[in-house]
Design goal:
It contains three helices and six strands. The protein is of the alpha+beta class and 153 residues long. This is Acyl-CoA thioester hydrolase. InterPro entries: 4-hydroxybenzoyl-CoA_TE, HotDog_dom_sf. Pfam families: 4HBT_2 (PF13279).
């Protein structure tokens, strides 16, 4: 499910002539904002439900360079969820569908009055149910990766 379509801004380009690594994180953060709006947690929804989402963990993989003016499309797949967490996989693609980066994230629902984790409000949970989801054996190939150096025997 496409969440966001955005062009690479000139100020996002670094001395190497392509989008700076921190800007990939920015685009995925904007993708989370778009996801929140999709599930009813835009400004009005956060106020109404007294609820928001925090990012607990992110695993970002850089696959290809993005350049100034290039159109980026961010999509999302839910890998797993429970009553207050979402494990999501986002892809950033160019306009031809080439994967430029991926971001696997663990998101936590937070009651804004207590500042503590809390179950998704019913209206939000019902919208989450409509998001594209993948069972474990259908996860995207780049999901669930671990970072580390190969072991030497």
């Amino acid at each position: 499910m496409a969440l966001l379509k955005i062009d690479v801004a000139p100020e996002w380009v670094d001395y190497n002539g392509h989008m700076n690594d921190a800007e990939y994180a920015r685009v995925f953060s904007l993708g989370v904002d778009a996801l929140m709006a999709t599930i009813g947690l835009d400004d009005a929804g956060r106020t109404q439900h007294r609820y928001t989402i925090y990012t607990l963990e992110t695993h970002l993989c850089y696959r290809r360079e993005a350049h100034q003016g290039q159109t980026l499309v961010v999509d999302v797949t839910v890998l797993a969820r429970d009553q207050k967490r979402l494990h999501v996989f986002m892809q950033m693609c160019d306009s031809q569908g080439e994967v430029l980066a991926t971001s696997e994230q663990m998101l936590m629902g937070i009651d804004t009055q207590t500042g503590r984790p809390a179950p998704f409000p019913d209206a939000v949970a019902s919208l989450i149910e409509r998001l594209p989801a993948a069972s474990y054996n259908e996860w995207p190939q780049l999901a669930g990766r671990r970072i580390g150096l190969p072991s030497r025997p």
